[in-house]
């Protein structure tokens, strides 16, 4: 059955870069013209919906109607990539509903693969929340995200991916000035990558390129994971290393 | 010969969720492949019958011919379990009538299996009914059902009061029915289907419906919790013992998973 990926960007902590990562995802998929839809659960600052009004809908899940508006849509058939930006204030509610209604099992049955991109930080609460979610959602794909602008340290033991081959997504630190440019409403990462740079790659250019490579690699890992599972666990361990080697050689 | 089981579901007051509990029981027996019939005493229109029309008859339990329909057919019906959803306020009078017709005597002699689900209200008056009801349940399995549908606490915050009602009768077993999401409950009401059918996203004809996945999920989770309570008090074993065979009730249909 064809798989429709559902990326859930979440953290129980505020100001860790959830919306930035969701934005990067939206632009990454948009740059390859893949059908995409997004949901922004941050009622106070729906930045993702503001930036992509044609693609992203704001939904308030504080009541049952809002829960239905979100989850009934997430479970609906359709081969399009979905990105959900779970505002930190919605974190507990989102996952308690997701667990209670048995969303993951039904989604997988319908060919929708939820992937939780969990933003790490150094707060013990965050590590605890990650461990609890991993226990409650055993069959779900978890990929931790290390945003170096939030913390330099990354505790691998606290934020292990659901399978080792899924790895960790690394978001490099940006300088403060460049961060200010990136946050401008008019800035589009995909457009930035597309436009010619007479002076050569800038810091933003390299940063976006590296992150888009991480996303591309994640997609490949997810695909290989499904392939491995369907082959009954036959190891396909060298493929990613070889692919990564080719990427470095060609300066991508 | 199999011993028939009669399950009486009653309450002294209306609006405590009696018929809701009856519906969960009918689904529970269905899932365990137990042949069941039900009598809805909310004559003339009925409330239980709307959700389980194929196995439910509307009766007036105060009317002798209807009493004969229920109790004279216990040994001849194909159903091994008869559920009697008693109109609110008629629990004690119904139990008294059962005594008067010799039903309780037959239970005492081991000819019948008798189970009483007493749905409690959150008032002292309702809890006082426990003592009145317990007089008739000496040879029955007597369940005190706390239905938390409206966030009531049943005086759990006052241990002395709580113990004076719930710990007084040693043979009375407590069952807690958790609250179901209100919108999910109302959607099932509108659909007029059993909870199990709603979870399976089917209408009364068995055709595919289009109920909200979220609401179905809430009902599935809730029903799993309710059935977890029935499993905890070994209701399946009680019914199976009545059939004279511990394995008479089949394995449960895996539509609902017991909540962790």
Q: What strand line-up does the widest sheet of chain A have?
A: 3-2-4-1-5-6-7
Order of helices and strands of chain B: EHEEHEHHEHEHEHHHH
CATH architecture assignment name of chain B: 3-Layer(aba) Sandwich
Shape of chain B: globular
Largest sheet of chain A: 7 strands, parallel
Distance from first to last alpha carbon of chain B? 38 Å
* Spatial strand sequence of the major β-sheet of chain B: 3-2-4-1-5-6-7
Tell me the number of strands of chain B: 7
CATH superfamily of chain A: P-loop containing nucleotide triphosphate hydrolases
CATH architecture title of chain A: 3-Layer(aba) Sandwich
Whole-number tally of structural domains of chain B: 1
- Indicate the multimeric state: heterodimer
User: Got a strand count of chain A?
Assistant: 7
At the first level of CATH, the class of chain A is: Alpha Beta
Instruction: Supply Rg of chain B.
Output: 18 Å
Classified by CATH, the class of chain B is Alpha Beta
Molecular shape of chain A: globular
Characteristic terms for this protein:
heterodimer, A: alpha/beta, Rossmann fold, seven-stranded parallel beta sheet, 10 helices, 15% strand, globular, B: alpha/beta, 7 strands
How are the SSEs ordered, and which strands pair?
The complex is a heterodimer of chains A (252) and B (260).
Chain A: E1 4-10, H1 18-31, E2 36-40, H2 47-51, E3 56-58, H3 64-74, E4 81-85, H4 91-100, H5 103-109, E5 112-119, H6 124-136, E6 141-147, E7 169-171, H7 176-182, H8 189-194, H9 203-230, H10 238-249
Parallel strand pairs in A: 1-4, 1-5, 2-3, 2-4, 5-6, 6-7
Chain B: E1 5-10, H1 18-31, E2 36-40, E3 56-58, H2 64-71, E4 81-85, H3 91-100, H4 103-108, E5 113-120, H5 124-134, E6 141-147, H6 159-166, E7 172-177, H7 182-191, H8 195-199, H9 213-232, H10 235-242
Helix pairs in contact in B: 7-9
